[in-house]
Amino acid sequence: MLTGTDMVRPSTLSAMKGWPLLLCLRLPAVRDRLRRAGLALLALPLALGAVSVAAQPAANAPPPAAIEAFRKADAARERGDLAAARIAYRTACEAGAAVGCTNHGLMLDRGEGGPADPAGAQVWWRMACERGNAQGCSVLGNAVMQSDPPTARGLFAQACEGAFREACFNLGIMTDQGRGGARDPVAARTAYRRACEADHRQGCYNYGGMLLKGDGGPADGSGARAAFRKSCDLGEPMGCTNLARIMITGQGGPVETAPAIALLTRTCDGGHGDACFTLGFVYGEGRGAPADPAKSRAMFERGCSLGHKSSCDRMRAP
Predict the structure, then answer these.
(1) Which phi and psi (to 5°) does residue 25 adopt?
(2) What is the DSSP string of the chain?
(3) Taken in order 271, 273, 275, 277, is the CA torsion positive or negative?
(4) By C-alpha distance, which of 51, 129, 53, 140 is closest to 92?
(5) How far apart are CA 172 and CA 78, in angstroms?
(6) Residues 272-288, buried b or exposed e (16+ Cβ, 10 A)?
(7) What is the pTM of this model?
(8) Residues 6+ positions from 130 with CB-CB distance below 8 Å
């Protein structure tokens, strides 16, 4: 199954009395060839059985020969015969299974089952995209993102229309940051919402940020709280941290200090410096509990030990 890597949108929202409401929405580095570009990268274990031929629109359902070739490709990959799988995915593509084109391109790109051929891979991904396979459009978008951002943006839009959540997330990043065209916060907010609806944890996180700011549409504190909660439930630590922050400030719902501190503590204990940093302010300012300077400093030290720059800066402050 194709998945993405961690990516969140950069933003700085207003702080309250020096307290970091959403201070640390940042862009962590991503992997491999998109590292410099700052977009989420699709992991490239192949689309395979989880996506399968069913990923192709029903109106364009492949013929039986293509389905059989695709199944043979999956079986060959399962038994470790990558050369046979590469050939069979190509056969499936040529017989009418668009996802076979995507997978053949992925194997070419990775050099699995034969020599690597990244340029050739793009030919097969374009073929898949033209035949309606959203994954093909999205992977091709990743491949051309650095050399041709406007084309990549269009490909992500096309793949998002095909309900591929990684593409919706990447489209959100590009329209949010004005890559490959003018900044379009309305389109970004829509793209993040669609990614979130498809359970993309960073999509929910970014959607929550736009709702809270009123970026790309009216501000919606309760919607932001719900989006951060979903992001947290899906495993995004920054979603948990920002949910806790607005629970403490009462944005989008009631003030819920005790559960917020418990959530921050779990997130900090899980090794996420932003949560530790926030706890430093909570204990330093006595939000929901008596002020405890020693515990506050311990939280900043913990955040700094996890590589959180703002925590380290706080430690050095007079």
Answers:
(1) -75, 110
(2) ----------B-PPPBTTB-SSTTB------GGGTTTTS-----S--HHHHTGGGS-GGGPPPHHHHHHHHHHHHHHHTT-HHHHHHHHHHHHHHT-HHHHHHHHHHHHHTTTS---HHHHHHHHHHHHHTT-HHHHHHHHHHHTTT-HHHHHHHHHHHHHTT-HHHHHHHHHHHHHTTTS---HHHHHHHHHHHHHTT-HHHHHHHHHHHHHTTTS---HHHHHHHHHHHHHTT-HHHHHHHHHHHHHTTTS---HHHHHHHHHHHHHTT-HHHHHHHHHHHHHTSSS---HHHHHHHHHHHHHTT-HHHHHHHH--
(3) positive
(4) 53
(5) 35
(6) bbbbbbbbbbbbbeebb
(7) 0.82
(8) none
Per-residue pLDDT of the chain (318 residues), as tens digits, is 223 332 233 332 222 233 333 333 322 222 222 322 333 323 233 443 333 333 445 556 778 999 899 999 999 999 999 999 999 999 999 999 999 999 999 999 999 999 999 999 999 999 999 999 999 999 999 999 999 999 999 999 999 999 999 999 999 999 999 999 999 999 999 999 999 999 999 999 999 999 999 999 999 999 999 999 999 999 999 999 999 999 999 999 999 999 999 999 999 999 999 999 999 999 998 887 789 999 999 999 999 999 999 999 988 876
Question: How far apart are the C-alpha atoms of 219 and 200, rounded to whole Å?
Answer: 21
CA dist., res. 136 & res. 129, Å (int): 5
The rounded distance, in Å, linking the Cα atoms of 141 and 167 is: 9
**Strand partners for 19:** 16
